[in-house]
Design brief:
With 262 residues, the protein is α+β, with helices and mostly antiparallel strands. It folds into 2 domains: 102 residues, Alpha-Beta Plaits; 133 residues, 2-Layer Sandwich (Alpha-Beta Plaits). It is built from 6 helices and 10 strands; from the N terminus they run βαββαβββαβββααβα.
């Protein structure tokens, strides 16, 4: 049988999503926990790989197994074998046509940035930080130019393996909640480091180093060397893939990121 599974995790302490020889990745932890319940090796395929230090509120994977277990075992049972910073949200049986990555019609990311003189303590590792004042209106103007289909080569990591840098951005917004800045992005797909590179560029604009028009110029030049450095992974959250309703996945209340922000 094939199952879809959604989980959330804090990326601190992990070397990213993808399995590595050292074993300190989210994928390694999940596959080991699933194997304990299935009593057989389990391999998972995820909707979107995350880097070291990046978090997820709803990562989705699919896996196949010959083991017959109640759905509760794939949730509570697997959670009993996972580190405290990783938790399964739901599991749902799917047909062989479902693929966690290729069935997705879009993906969502959020970046949280503390903008104050002092570094974060309580939220250390869970938010980005910039110490100089940032102009929200300048960043909002720059973000608006990202909407639509663009070649995002200027925001693409050198080792990105995507077949094309052309993606369609459906949402790119910046808002403030006190000293916390919230960056939201939704697109058909994202390039490696794309969100962190966009945030870094928006911060450069917000601190007045460049005008909002610089964002559009970078899109036109398609030159990664001209854009801002890659921003910290600490405040980046993968909010999950977007699937068509035909898969009938369980309804879940929105994640805590919306509950802690006005």
């Amino acid at each position: 049988m094939r199952f879809a599974l959604a989980l959330e995790y804090c990326g601190r302490g992990f070397h990213g999503w993808q399995s590595q020889p050292g074993g300190v990745t989210v994928q390694d932890a999940l596959e080991a926990a699933l194997a304990e319940i299935a009593a057989e090796p389990i391999a998972v395929v995820c909707a979107g790989r995350t880097d070291a230090g990046v978090h997820a509120t709803q990562q989705v994977v699919h896996f196949e197994t010959t083991a017959e277990r109640p759905l509760s075992a794939w949730v509570r049972g697997v959670n009993a074998h996972l580190p405290e910073s990783v938790a399964v949200r739901w599991v749902h049986p799917v047909s062989e046509e479902f693929h966690a990555r290729y069935s997705a019609r879009g993906r969502r990311y959020r970046y949280l940035l503390i903008n104050r003189a002092q570094r974060p303590g309580l939220w250390g590792g869970r938010v980005g930080w910039f110490h100089l004042p940032l102009d929200l209106s300048l960043m909002q103007r720059a973000a608006a130019s990202l909407i639509g289909e663009h070649d995002f080569s200027a925001f693409r990591a050198a080792d990105c393996q995507a077949r094309t840098p052309v993606k369609t951005m459906r949402q790119a917004t910046v808002r403030a909640s006190g000293s916390l800045l919230v960056f939201d992005f939704e697109a058909t797909a994202f390039l490696h480091h794309m969100v962190r590179n966009l945030v870094g560029t928006l911060v450069y604009i917000g601190k007045g180093r460049h005008s909002p028009e610089w964002m559009d110029e970078l899109l036109q030049t398609r030159n990664r060397q001209l854009a801002a450095p890659t921003f910290s992974p600490d405040g980046l959250y993968f909010r999950g893939p977007i699937y068509e309703s035909q898969w009938n996945f369980p309804e879940t209340d929105d994640d805590f990121l919306d509950r802690v922000l006005p």
